[in-house]
């Protein structure tokens, strides 16, 4: 049985990747940092929480990563852990650099000292392109990050390339464009929108405050993207790949689709533009070109943009409906 170690197993991608690897017969070990309360909701929602083994560790602590790699003895190591929310990276730039940037070095050092034959995947990001030099963005497009998060990811990208070239480690960068799902964290734009739309449709909320509606992103489904991560580690030679849908949409288009899915036509009545939600520097236009992944890995996305947003709205409506009796009790108690 092949064993994989996944950092960030409690996050969106960690949960989907775990399910995907378990489906392939892998033994899955996840690195979790200590929390005052367990944080395994996503693994529970996918019904796999009892199928994975957990080891403790933190990307800020070198020895804990070495111990985790030693204990797990994986054949494949997926580094998905990061401080991954771009606005937070302006509030905690040094901590973001520690975890999202230097954390990658700690993982690679652990591979180097414990077992350099371990295959390594680094969760790189389209945020590295930032102020884009060309459209669409491909593996050869120069980086120009526009946030402390993007800067940290550029560091993670290059340290991965360097360990590959310096030590012959099988290390790959997946340059993934935005990918979403019903398990997405609530503060990221698509989930923020779909959860608010569900509450507005049920009369539980009236207003949705947003920032820049003009930004364009290439949005895909997380469940599709984790397959590309696995494929990258199954090749004869390690390499770096863009993973994207090759389509771009504005935030405004996403908002429109989400409201229409819930049967609300006049979304402008509910959306309030809040200047505080604009970023100090914006990434205006992301559109990937995943030709290399399609050609070399045989990978392609299956879920289209509108289908993805509809899936998320439906899931949030379902969640809110399941919570409704409790909410009604609370309203009654407050009255
Ligand atoms: P999430 O924010 O959902 O998950 C991040 C994970 O990292 C969580 O499990 C979190 O643990 C863990 N983590 C954070 N800090 C530490 C630390 N110091 N030590 C150990 N674990 C830590 O991210 P996603 O699943 O969406 O993304 C996965 C990876 O892919 C990230 O690296 C992200 O930057 C990158 N990426 C994501 C894209 C996307 O569109 N989703 C696109 C491109 C790249 P905890 O639960 O304890 O907070
Ligand atoms: P992003 O994702 O920064 O692209 O990073 P996010 O969903 O946060 O923002 C997408 C775009 O929407 C605009 N926006 C808002 N965003 C948020 N979060 N909240 C708002 O209210 C709002 N209003 C408008 C943003 O300005 C932005 O243009 C995600 C993360 O998953 C990263 O970890 C990952 O690396 C990249 O995707 C690829």
Automatic annotation (TrEMBL):
Domain NAD(P)-binding per the UniProt entry, residue ranges? 5-312
Name a Pfam family for this protein. Answer: GDP_Man_Dehyd
**Alphabetical list of InterPro entries matching this protein:** GDP_Man_deHydtase, NAD(P)-bd_dom, NAD(P)-bd_dom_sf
**Which SUPFAM superfamilies does the UniProt entry name for this protein?**
NAD(P)-binding Rossmann-fold domains
Question: GO biological process: any one?
Answer: 'de novo' GDP-L-fucose biosynthetic process
Q: Which GO terms describe its molecular function?
A: GDP-mannose 4,6-dehydratase activity; NADP+ binding
What sort of enzyme, by top EC class, is this?
Answer: lyase
Which reaction(s) are listed as its catalytic activity?
GDP-alpha-D-mannose = GDP-4-dehydro-alpha-D-rhamnose + H2O
| Cofactor(s), names only, from the UniProt record | NADP(+)
Q: What is its EC number?
A: 4.2.1.47
**Keywords noted in UniProt:** Lyase, NADP
Q: Is Lyase one of the keywords?
A: yes
Q: Does the keyword Lyase apply?
A: yes
What family is this?
Belongs to the NAD(P)-dependent epimerase/dehydratase family. GDP-mannose 4,6-dehydratase subfamily.
The task this protein performs is described as: Catalyzes the conversion of GDP-D-mannose to GDP-4-dehydro-6-deoxy-D-mannose.
Name the HAMAP family on file.
GDP_Man_dehydratase (MF_00955)
Protein name, as recorded: GDP-mannose 4,6-dehydratase
Q: Which classification does the entry list for the species?
A: Bacteria, Bacillati, Actinomycetota, Thermoleophilia, Gaiellales
